Amino acid sequence: MSLPSLRDDALSSTDVGFELRISLPWIRSLPVWSVNSLELAVDGDPVGVSAVGIGDRRVAPSALAFERGWWFVQDRLRLEGRRMLAPGVHEVMLGFRLIVPYLDAGGDGPLSLPFSSARTLLLDAPAMGTVSRDVA
Questions:
Q1: What's the pLDDT score for residue 131?
Q2: Which of 4, 16, 71, 105 could serve as 111's disulfide partner, Cβ 3.0–4.6 Å?
Q3: Read out DSSP for 59-103?
Q4: pTM of the model
């Protein structure tokens, strides 16, 4: 079972570009280091993830492998992109791999699952009844 990664209020503008807050598409909390191979496209154009927000810190996507925190099911991970977006709706495509450390995939190590999500999102949509918080 996969939970949605992109909620209605996932996309917001920042002073230097945008922020995409993604939800964990898994049924249990996982270590932050379980996220890898982040890919992002906005309006059909690939956009590099410039940083990932962990609490009040910003880390490079490649540094997630060394994070010791947890991505809880109700939390969202903040991905930062350095591309200014026009007001209105945008087509967002997200892809990543999620390592599930407690599920063995045989001789290759733990299970690694690909996830992808595509949605039309309104930039700076208001949060509606959400109980999520950002990964701390």
A1: 60
A2: 105
A3: E-GGGGGG---EE-TTEEEEEEE-----SSEEEEEEEEEEEEEEE
A4: 0.91
